[in-house]
Amino acid sequence: MISPVRRALLVLAICSFGLGTGEFVALGLLPDIAGDLGVSVPRAGNLISAYALGVVIGAPLLTAASVRFPRKGLLITLVVALAAGNLISAAMPGFYSLLAMRFLSGLPHGAFFGVAAVQAAKLVPAGRRSRAMAVVFAGLTIANVVGVPLTTFVGQHTSWRLVLVLVAVVELIGALGVLAAVPRSERVDPGSPDAPHLRHELGAFRNKQIWLSLGVATIGGGATFATFSYIAPMMTEVAGYAAASITPLLVLFGLGMTFGNLIGARLADQYDMSKVIYGAMAANVVIAGVFYFGSSSKIASAVLIFLFPFSNTMAFPALQNRIITLAGGAPNLAAASMHAAFNIANSIGAWLGGATIAAGWGYNSPNLVAVGLGLLGVGIAVYAGQSQGGSVSVVRTTTTPERVPEPEPVQSA
Fold it and tell me: How distant is the alpha carbon of residue 89 from its chain centre?
């Protein structure tokens, strides 16, 4: 029998899976979308950028606008909005209408993950927060293992429009799961000092440690996306794999993300979060350097395509837990901002990686970008740890953390 806490985390992970698949669904179907709409593949790639831009803008704005809404209802609303965005996108007749719809579809994405992270943290004791949040975000990493390859296969044999409809169905199933399994938060009188207020959420950003954490997420995440954005030509042109091998290699990459996320969460709950971040990011720098020199070997590339995302993703649960802890009684906007940071990282990493390729440095040169960004991320993380004095300082606000029903004891998230 699944406990109520695990059931709630599971349905949030299902939502996360749907959102993650919807975010990256265009990656494997760009040629099909481009051909159907009569545009070039690079131009169709703007659909991915439009969604990411929606995430960056929507994460803070929607979270700020809805900070006083009950979390359960807000989660359902955001997931239904994402499902509606995918359904409407599937019906768009031309490129520009689809481009606008992909931007609108991305707006609720970051807000959902911010609210879901806070909700997951509230369901478990403080010593298990990282693991609870990692279960939710496991849906996002599993989307790269199962969702993206599966939707690519289905879309190539049917239609990319049908794939968007299927993604919307998964999201609606997740919304029904939230309705059935996620507990309601205790109602707070809007006039009460315990009620959430936008000024308190914004006040959390007076703490420079929150900005440093967002900097680590942006720069460190950029290291991942520098390599990930060009992993297909790296494997075919440098390692010598056939094009048919790209899908299983991407699955291997997704597995590295999934296991790194889960193991990093356990480490973050058991050890000092700053040290987990240092260790994971330093390991990523080393692995990116090895990847640059070892990418011409098929065997080495297969191993490194797992280890690279594994080491990078290990830092994410600690970063998410750290920023929620730093924000104290006003965690919603800070948590949502993490996902805006990762989407900015996506753009930075892809742009810098592409720049090195365009400069003639080779398809394995994005790994050098990963090394450089990784070193910069480690530097920011070390500075944050030293300036904070070795302990996480929680922002004091006039609010208190939202009260939810006491969860039953759990052995693991």
Answer: 22
Model confidence at 213: pLDDT above 60: yes
CB 136 within 8 A of CB 261: no
1-183 and 197-395 share one CATH topology? yes
Give the fold, CATH level 3, of 1-183. Answer: Growth Hormone; Chain: A; (1.20.1250)
- Closest by CA to 288, choosing from 375, 216, 378, 356, is 375
Model pTM above 0.70: yes
At residue 197, the pLDDT reads 66
Give CA angle at 26 (102, 344), nearest 5°.
Answer: 65
3-class secondary structure, 357: helix
CATH code assigned to 197-395:
1.20.1250.20
The structure tokens listed for 325 are 């802890």
Which residues fall within 8 angstroms of residue 308, CB to CB, at 6 or more apart? 224, 227, 253, 256, 284, 287, 288, 291, 370
Could you tell me which of 245, 364, 358 has the C-alpha nearest to residue 296?
Answer: 364
Domain locations along the chain: 1-183, 197-395
